[in-house]
């Protein structure tokens, strides 16, 4: 069997929830198929895959962005005005490089990782018998939830205005994402989601979609031998704003009660992010 995977983030190193989910699917298909990986990467570097996991890996470089606060807010203001979700916009304009990376091959299955790449369905269809879309999140719901969680820029005078602008942006992106979901999801051969709740939500948004639950999983690795300690580990990408909000909620609302009952337990936050903000920042990528 011939399988193509298109991913906008590397499955390795395993430094966040998205990487774990993508890697687990990659390992699953590699058990019985020849897999070619097309990786969209800002660094332009290939993923550090275990030897023999894929037949080929091709990297499509993503133009570098200025991630300064002013540039980020200006960029997302433009996206809000145009009604284009941030990561859909970030990954746009790559139809030509994707076609060249496929190079005329034919595949039994194509796995598209993340909704951000969903608009490339028409590019992939001539080369693939079936195309699966793996939804790590339901983007419209993610933005709807961010409306109540996001905080604005840390500048006293502008804080209230900044918070409301961010909420308005999330509302705009939620509506734009919902419109795309309604149109694109039914066109895929199958939709994969992490949970039954996500499956119910997808069926509400796009009733004709063919939805299956593929739970978040780990790629197979040998169990390490190490001493046991009373530790709670939160593994995630801590540059991703829903995870930043989640850690803030954990640290403020849950962890004090846990420590009171079990003072010996330690919390370890493991994953990507040099300077995580525990109280949450509602920024877009």
What does this structure look like?
The protein has 285 residues and is an alpha/beta fold. Helix content is 40%, strand content 18%. The protein has nine helices and nine strands. Helix 6 runs antiparallel to helix 7. The protein is globular and about 60 Å long. The chain starts with a strand and ends in a 15-residue tail after the last strand. The C terminus is likely disordered.
Strand order of the largest sheet: 3-2-1-4-5-6-7
| Structural class designation | alpha/beta
Spatial separation of the terminal alpha carbons: 36 Å
Low-confidence stretches: 152-158, 276-285
Compute the gyration radius: what is it?
20 Å
Sheet-strand content, in percent, reads 15-25%
The major β-sheet equals:
7 strands, parallel
Average of per-residue pLDDT values: 88
Indicate the overall shape: globular
| H-E string | EHEEHHHEHEHHEHEEHE
Total of helices: 9
Number of separate strands: 9
Estimated helix fraction: 25-40%
